[in-house]
Write a structure and sequence with these properties.
Length: 132
């Protein structure tokens, strides 16, 4: 499956693995993870990796909850990130364009984070759908 030019995060958030597979294709790898302060600490959750590592999704309580998107160099501004995710334009809760920009409680998602690498280039997007 080709890499998406837009990632409709609301079509993935809180969805079962089968629904995510329909959008992103079959996972290229599956790992068991135990993030602290989550139900996964007691019983490991699945982290599925799609499209050669571009998308990593931790399924908490059986649904897509923590989403990491790599290879985001084309999205250099906060507004470009929101457009890529299919989210409405919104002023960030925090904006340090050399480190991180984040939004809280945006379009029903807990938080969206846009991280930059040490050279100030876009590095990855991290979305927490439900679980803090």
């Amino acid at each position: 499956m080709n890499t998406l030019t837009h990632f409709p995060v609301k079509d993935v958030a809180a969805k079962l693995p089968a629904a995510v597979k329909a959008l992103l294709g079959k996972p290229s790898a599956i790992e068991l993870v135990r993030p602290s302060s989550t139900p996964c600490k007691e019983q490991a959750c699945e982290k599925m990796i799609y499209q050669g590592g571009k998308y990593e999704i931790v399924f908490i309580n059986g649904v897509a909850d923590w989403i990491t998107i790599s290879q985001v160099a084309a999205y250099t501004t906060p507004n470009a990130v929101l457009e890529y995710l299919g989210l409405p334009e919104q002023v960030p809760a925090f904006n340090n364009p050399q480190q991180v920009v984040w939004w809280r409680d945006i379009a029903g998602l807990h938080e969206v984070n846009f991280f930059y690498d040490i050279a100030g280039r876009p590095a990855y997007i991290y979305v927490k759908c439900i679980t803090k």
